[in-house]
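Sample intake sheet
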Amino acid sequence: MRRTLTILVALGALLYLGTAVAGADEAPPPAEPAATTAAPPTAPAALSLESSTSTPVYGERVEVHGSLQPVTPGEEVVLEIDLGDGAWAPMARAPVDGFGSYTISFDALAAGTLRARSTISGAISANVPFPVTPVVRVKAKPGTAFRTATLRAAITPSTYAGRARAVVRRDGERVARAAGRIRHGRLQLDVPTPGIGTFWVELTLPAASGLASRTVGVKVTARGRTLQAGSTGRDVVGLRARLAELRFHVPAPSTTFGSELYDSVIAFQKAYGLPRTGCRRPRDVAQARPGRRPETALQASVTAHRGRQDAPDPAGRPSGEGRRHPAGLDRRDRQHARGAPRDSAGRRPPPPPGSGRASCTEP
């Protein structure tokens, strides 16, 4: 019995040793790598910039604002401007609050392009155009009908220099233009006033001296008066210009209402069916339009200055002998034209006021 147990123990030991040797020969499987979690990438800082005023005038206080995300403690934003030479110059700076917002105030002194830059993260905003226009103050003096009105403008800064252009409008339609140069911040410009009443003048200053262009408007009034033989002034020249525009024959420019201009007025009144007074009332010439001129007006104008041949006289007097006279004059006017002495230029003075068919008094 003892022998049998000894044999069994020996066999068990042999089996254990064989199993151990076989396990040592087999390599253990490689260990699985430990799973690692990568950190998410950091988003770049975003900086915005907006202006409270789209087109400020020179010297105006302007406020810009924006936000920075994410927020970094102690962050500041610097406002920079490019004046067109590609170089960014700092203007002002402000801290960023706990919500990432900032506000910067400054005086508008030059036009250019703005941007914001953060001092720590280095974020840069999009470019924002920044036009600054000059300060323009315009005054208009009452003008003379069919002549001009004077505009006086003061521009700030006084260093601004450019050529201003004016467009004269009436009832929305452009009727005249003018231009003048600004010197030392001052402009004096005579604008045409082709009529009587109110005109609207648009004055445009171009971009110059580091400032953007600007257009301002001003109302201009042109006054007229009743003109008759012997009247003097700039409006007499305006009357001549208006009659020439209506295609009537007119004398040489003069500030005195003489006999030849009197004949031109008579021709105008005859062509338009007005009382032939030889006096110009402001409303009459102002309301006339070249496109609506009667066909007989040109003939009346020429006849008034060259004289006309009357029909044969029923009494048998020789035709045309001593009977050439300006067209449109009545009998008393013709008697004055025949009997009045001539001046040094060979011209007779116009008939005295009130000698025609109607008076010069305004209705």
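Comment: The longest strand covers residues 147-156. Residues 7 and 13 are 10 Å apart (CA to CA).
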